[in-house]
Amino acid sequence: MQLTLQQQKLGDVVVVRCAGRIVVGEEIRALQMQVDPLSLQCGKVVLQLANVSFIDSAGVGALVRLLGLMRSHGCELSLCQLSPFVERVLQITHLLDVLPNYASEQEAICGSQETSQSASHASAPAKTRIVCADGSREVLAYLSTLLERAGYEVLTARHPSDALTLVKVTTAKILICGPGIQTNQLKIEKSRSGDPVVRLLHLPSDFSTADAGEAGAKLIDQVRSLMAAGR
Description:
- There is one protein chain.
- By secondary structure, this protein is α/β, with parallel strands linked by helices.
- 39% of the residues lie in helices and 23% in strands.
- It folds into two domains: 4-110, Transcription Regulator spoIIAA (2-Layer Sandwich); 129-229, Rossmann fold.
- Helix 2 crosses helix 5, helix 2 packs across helix 8 (212-229) and helix 3 runs parallel beside helix 8 (212-229).
- The longest helix has 18 residues, at 212-229.
C-alpha cells in the first residue's frame, strides 16, 4: 500500500494523517515534500500514524531528519496514534523517547515538546566511536540515532574517503558501511589493512528497506559482538 497523506491546519498546528508504508523511495520523498515546507509555515506539525502498516530503516531515519529540520526552524514535530507496527519498531530501537509521541491528536496538538535529552543507555561505553558511511541521509540519520541511544559516539560520512579520514583522525573503533557504500569495499579493505584496530561492519543490501526494528536490533548485537571480540 502506497503512502497517502491528508493535511489539516488547526490554528498554528498542521496535522498530517499518514496511511500506508513509510519506506525508501517515493513514499519518503512524498512525506518530505509535504512536511518540509511546513517548518516555515506553522509552529507545530503532528504526524498521525494510526494507519501506517510498515516503516523501514530509511523511514525511521526520515522521521529523525524531519525532527531535526523542524527544530532548526523553531517548529515542533510530534507523532501520535502510533500503529502497533510503528510502536513496536520505536520500542525495539529505543527511539520512543527521541521522537515525541502522544496517544491522540488532541494530546499531540496541546502537548509541549520535551527539550531535555534522555540519558544514554549504559549498555556500551559512552566514548566508543563509530563511523557510519552511506550515501543515504535517511540511513545515516537512523544509524546515528540508533547507535547513540545505545551509548556510542557516532560520526557520519556520505563518501568513502571522508569516512576513512574520520576513522583516522578520531581513532574510531568500528567503521559501518551502509548499502550505498558496498561497491567501495575493496578500497576500504585496502586502506583498512594498515590499521587492524578498526573493525569493519558491512550492512546487508536490504538494510534500508528491512523492518527497522529487526534491522536495528541485529545491528546493535553485531556491534556489541565486534567490541567484545576486540577486547
